[in-house]
């Protein structure tokens, strides 16, 4: 291995089996921790030899694992721009592909494959590349890929026209009830296509991945697969509108310039046999854009579109919006046109059961005729029945509880002095650079529905509750401790919360750790709530928080604590307001239901409208 091999803070965390926050803490606490030898202030690089020696001296590392040595050897053999090409070449060499990586890298990977096995080694290289480039690489979560694959019927050939690293095709192969005999894919990036082919070949699957843009340079013009799966690029303007105007694939209409996703849908339909299935993960706007209503109408009229299932926000790798699964089937010449289509919203874990219930019992079915209006809006929530919650409880008890809460509410208002004061401000970013506070951000993509470790999610922070997510401790996972401030990175209403117990953080969260001798965490959280909202960027009503720009006053610690105490009192007041409003609405619902059901009778009193 090169003597000048470097590692990131994330690499160090992986080597030591800790979170990134621990590495940041070591850098501050230990004066002998190796200094950066490159990189940037936000992403420094360290000498691997120096880090290895330091970890051993601290008893945090016995021996650098061989797989990690191989990865560092590969990563340090080239620059970031060429890393994917090198990783792909090494992976291809392991499965007998047409690749010529540097001999020393091929030899190291071959020895690792002897130890781990070819399949495990290729997947190891893929995972390490994705982890190293987690901020730039967008891949579907394993759960999304598995859900899309599970919707397919047994298929001998499966096609993905925008296959990336092959995640959807891997899921089609791994589906418990089916082994796809042959898989085909196309990918714009040549190195990515090679790595996808290597991953699938390592599984022992007959695979063919070709390079190029499926829309403008279709590499499989005669393809007639049993099924197709696809997560198309969202909102592409330059997808080939001008040159593809008269393309025979547009059986349901020419996709508008701003509707690239509808071009991908029709491409998938053109590349499956009559009766073949297509499952596409679509952005929610594709269901409502006025420019696409003609194509949506044709998909319905011909019985091609069989279902639209809304998924939770964040399920798509390239968007934080709630995507939709479009389930389609290419009609055969003699197929009867169905009269119903599935409209549903559900969690990922319920998708398969919802689809099966529709096929078996027509549960969730919507008449196609009812969808064919001027808008042809395919948003499921527009048609789903609103849940009516039965109102229970005693009106007199709710009235008494509301009166007690109302009396208590006035006493929770914080006592503040109406006296203007000039505050000298700084930014959180300046405080970070000065070392007064420490900032960490959790990964954008984490599994939060399965695993053994409780995860505090962004929604938990917003609702002020304990951790409800479930996951595993992975690279980049952050453990927060009492006194840390957490704030969602993407939210509709900004909430900054001071933790009172140790907890593992889920995705989309900032963690701010303060030096208690310099800062009061409640003071910091209070100012972050409003300042972070003012400096946030907005998109479709969602705020993207940039906490580094948040304004924080420069105040002595004793004054910070006064502010911190008042901010805590303000939070208690807000909770009291919410509880009062909740009981008040409950009382109103009880009275309304009682009057309409006949269990309550009106009392005639003098009444004047406001």
TrEMBL record:
<dbReference type="InterPro" id="IPR044946">
    <property type="entry name" value="Restrct_endonuc_typeI_TRD_sf"/>
</dbReference>
<feature type="domain" description="DNA methylase adenine-specific">
    <location>
        <begin position="123"/>
        <end position="345"/>
    </location>
</feature>
<dbReference type="Pfam" id="PF02384">
    <property type="entry name" value="N6_Mtase"/>
</dbReference>
<dbReference type="InterPro" id="IPR052916">
    <property type="entry name" value="Type-I_RE_MTase_Subunit"/>
</dbReference>
<keyword id="KW-0238">DNA-binding</keyword>
<keyword id="KW-0489">Methyltransferase</keyword>
<protein>
    <submittedName>
        <fullName>N-6 DNA methylase</fullName>
    </submittedName>
</protein>
<dbReference type="InterPro" id="IPR029063">
    <property type="entry name" value="SAM-dependent_MTases_sf"/>
</dbReference>
<dbReference type="GO" id="GO:0032259">
    <property type="term" value="P:methylation"/>
</dbReference>
<dbReference type="GO" id="GO:0008168">
    <property type="term" value="F:methyltransferase activity"/>
</dbReference>
<dbReference type="InterPro" id="IPR003356">
    <property type="entry name" value="DNA_methylase_A-5"/>
</dbReference>
<keyword id="KW-0680">Restriction system</keyword>
<keyword id="KW-0808">Transferase</keyword>
């Amino acid at each position: 291995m090169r003597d000048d091999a470097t590692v990131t803070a994330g690499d160090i965390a992986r080597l030591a089996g800790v979170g990134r926050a621990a590495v940041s803490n070591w850098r501050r606490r230990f004066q002998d921790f190796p200094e950066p030898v490159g990189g940037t202030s936000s992403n420094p690089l360290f000498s691997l030899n120096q880090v290895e020696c330091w970890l051993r001296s601290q008893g945090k590392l016995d021996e650098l694992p061989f797989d990690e040595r191989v990865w560092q050897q590969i990563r340090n053999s080239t620059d970031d721009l060429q890393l994917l090409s090198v990783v792909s070449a090494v992976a291809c060499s392991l499965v007998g592909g047409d690749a010529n990586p540097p001999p020393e890298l091929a030899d190291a990977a071959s020895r690792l494959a002897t130890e781990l096995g070819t399949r495990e080694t290729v997947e190891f290289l893929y995972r390490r590349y994705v982890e190293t480039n987690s901020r730039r690489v967008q891949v579907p979560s394993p759960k999304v890929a598995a859900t899309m694959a599970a919707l397919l019927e047994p298929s001998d050939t499966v096609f993905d026209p925008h296959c990336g690293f092959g995640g959807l095709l891997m899921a089609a192969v791994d589906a418990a009830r089916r082994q796809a005999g042959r898989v085909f894919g196309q990918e714009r990036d040549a190195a990515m296509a090679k790595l996808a082919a290597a991953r699938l070949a390592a599984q022992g699957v007959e695979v063919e991945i070709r390079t190029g843009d499926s829309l403008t340079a279709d590499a499989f013009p005669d393809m007639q697969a049993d099924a197709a799966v696809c997560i198309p690029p969202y909102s592409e303007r330059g997808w080939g509108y001008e040159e593809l105007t008269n393309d025979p694939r547009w059986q349901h209409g020419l996709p508008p310039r701003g509707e690239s996703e509808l071009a991908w849908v029709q491409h998938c339909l053109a590349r499956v046999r009559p009766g073949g299935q297509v499952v596409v993960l679509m952005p929610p706007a594709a269901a409502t854009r006025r420019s696409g209503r003609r194509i949506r109408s044709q998909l319905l009229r011909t019985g091609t579109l069989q279902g639209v299932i809304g998924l939770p926000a964040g399920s798509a790798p390239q968007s934080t919006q709630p995507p939709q699964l479009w389930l389609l089937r290419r009609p055969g010449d003699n197929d009867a046109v169905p009269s119903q289509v599935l409209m549903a919203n559900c969690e990922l874990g319920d998708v398969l059961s919802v689809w099966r219930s529709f096929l078996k019992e027509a549960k969730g079915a919507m008449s196609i005729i009812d969808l064919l209006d001027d808008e042809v809006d395919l948003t499921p929530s527009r048609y789903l029945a609103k849940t009516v919650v039965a109102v229970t409880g005693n009106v007199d008890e709710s009235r008494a509880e509301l009166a007690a809460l109302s009396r208590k509410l006035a006493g929770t208002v914080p006592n503040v002095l109406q006296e203007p004061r000039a505050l000298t401000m700084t930014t959180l970013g300046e405080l970070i650079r000065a070392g007064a506070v420490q900032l960490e951000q959790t990964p954008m993509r984490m599994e939060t529905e399965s695993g053994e470790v409780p995860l505090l999610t962004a929604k938990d922070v917003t609702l002020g509750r304990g951790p409800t997510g479930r996951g595993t401790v992975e690279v980049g996972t952050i453990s927060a401790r009492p006194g840390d401030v957490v704030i969602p990175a993407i939210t509709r209403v900004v909430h900054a919360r001071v933790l009172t117990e140790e907890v593992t953080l889920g995705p989309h969260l900032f963690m701010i750790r303060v030096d208690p001798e310099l800062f009061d965490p409640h003071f910091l959280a209070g100012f972050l709530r409003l300042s972070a909202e003012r400096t946030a960027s907005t998109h479709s009503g969602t705020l993207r928080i940039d906490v580094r720009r948040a304004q924080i006053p420069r105040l002595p610690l004793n004054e910070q604590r006064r502010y911190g105490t008042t901010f805590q009192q303000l939070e208690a007041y807000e909770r009291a307001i919410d509880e009062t409003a909740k009981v008040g609405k409950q009382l109103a619902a009880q009275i309304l239901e009682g009057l309409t059901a006949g269990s309550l009778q009106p009392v005639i009193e003098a009444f004047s409208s406001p």
